């Protein structure tokens, strides 16, 4: 078992992400003793195994205690640990909101991306995979809706290219789709309420209570705000 744990950690370090269907990943998700040894060895190095039932991949991340010691010397680490500028973080949050939130609704409803009718027995099905429920968004629509707020085309293209290289999204012709890290390294519990009831309330057509608890009142402030970024990881 020790050798298999070692191999899994080495593969995750080498490849950044592995699919949930991978033999050793499935073992980490189902074998309690294997998972305990995996977590123990990772914790000794200041790292943790990151899994999300809504995502098709798993990855590794730093533990919360290690973040400041590793990234504390960088100006941007409190927003993110990928070196993204504020408008890059804002673009990431917008893409997460437009791709991941609708996908999770379809997953929780056990509805595939191509289905347009309700299945009265859908709840009996296993949770659908991300690749079967995730729908991309049009680059041209993204540019039209958010280009002026995210630095116009040149700046948005630069940040989008960086997000593609980091593995958050993939670009297929005009379509921007979910990458392996988009639903793994974002703090959904923190972001979801702030996004739906704050920053993107005009898009989701939900009235916003103008209170001090509202983080961002509208999308005009999105690029200049201190939204939490991918340094906040989500765990099961």
Question: What is this structure, in a nutshell?
Answer:
The chain is mainly alpha-helical and 236 residues long. Helices cover 46% and strands 10% of the residues. Residues 202-229 and 231-236 have low confidence and may be disordered.
Comma- or semicolon-separated keywords:
236 residues, mainly alpha, Arc Repressor Mutant, subunit A, 2 domains, three-stranded antiparallel sheet, 10 helices, 6 strands, 10% strand, globular, disordered C terminus
Tell me what you see in this structure:
By secondary structure, the protein is mainly alpha-helical. The protein has helices at residues 2-15, 23-30, 32-43, 64-71, 86-108, 130-133, 139-146, 152-166, 188-199, 201-204, and strands spanning 17-19, 47-50, 57-62, 137-138, 169-172, 175-178. Helix 1 (2-15) crosses helix 3 (32-43), helix 2 crosses helix 3 and helix 5 (86-108) crosses helix 8 (152-166). Residues 202-229 and 231-236 have low confidence and may be disordered. The chain folds into two domains: 2-71, Arc Repressor Mutant, subunit A (Orthogonal Bundle), CATH 1.10.10; 86-224, no CATH class. The longest helix is centred in the middle third of the chain and has 23 residues, at 86-108. It has a three-stranded antiparallel beta sheet. It has a three-stranded antiparallel beta sheet with strand order 4-6-5. Strand 5 and strand 6 (175-178) form a beta hairpin.
């Amino acid at each position: 078992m020790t050798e298999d744990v070692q191999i899994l950690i080495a593969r995750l370090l080498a490849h950044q992400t592995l699919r949930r269907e991978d033999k050793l990943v499935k073992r980490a998700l189902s074998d309690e003793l294997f998972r305990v040894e995996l977590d123990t060895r990772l914790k000794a190095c200041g790292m943790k195994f990151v899994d999300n039932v809504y995502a098709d991949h798993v990855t590794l991340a730093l533990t919360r205690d290690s973040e400041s010691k590793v990234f504390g010397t960088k100006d941007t680490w409190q927003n993110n640990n990928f070196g993204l500028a504020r408008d890059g973080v804002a673009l990431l949050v917008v893409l997460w909101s437009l791709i991941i939130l609708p996908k999770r609704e379809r997953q929780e409803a056990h509805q595939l991306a191509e289905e347009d009718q309700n299945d009265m027995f859908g709840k009996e099905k296993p949770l659908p995979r991300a690749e079967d429920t995730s729908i991309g968004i049009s680059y041209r629509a993204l540019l039209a809706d958010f280009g002026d707020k995210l630095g116009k085309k040149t700046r948005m293209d630069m940040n989008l290219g960086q997000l593609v290289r980091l593995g958050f999204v993939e670009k297929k012709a005009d379509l921007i789709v979910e990458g392996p890290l988009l639903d793994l390294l974002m703090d959904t519990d923190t972001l979801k309420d702030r996004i739906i009831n704050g920053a993107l309330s005009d898009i989701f057509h939900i009235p916003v209570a103008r209170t001090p608890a509202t983080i961002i009142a509208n999308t005009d402030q999105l690029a200049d705000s201190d939204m939490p970024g991918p340094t906040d990881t989500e765990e099961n």
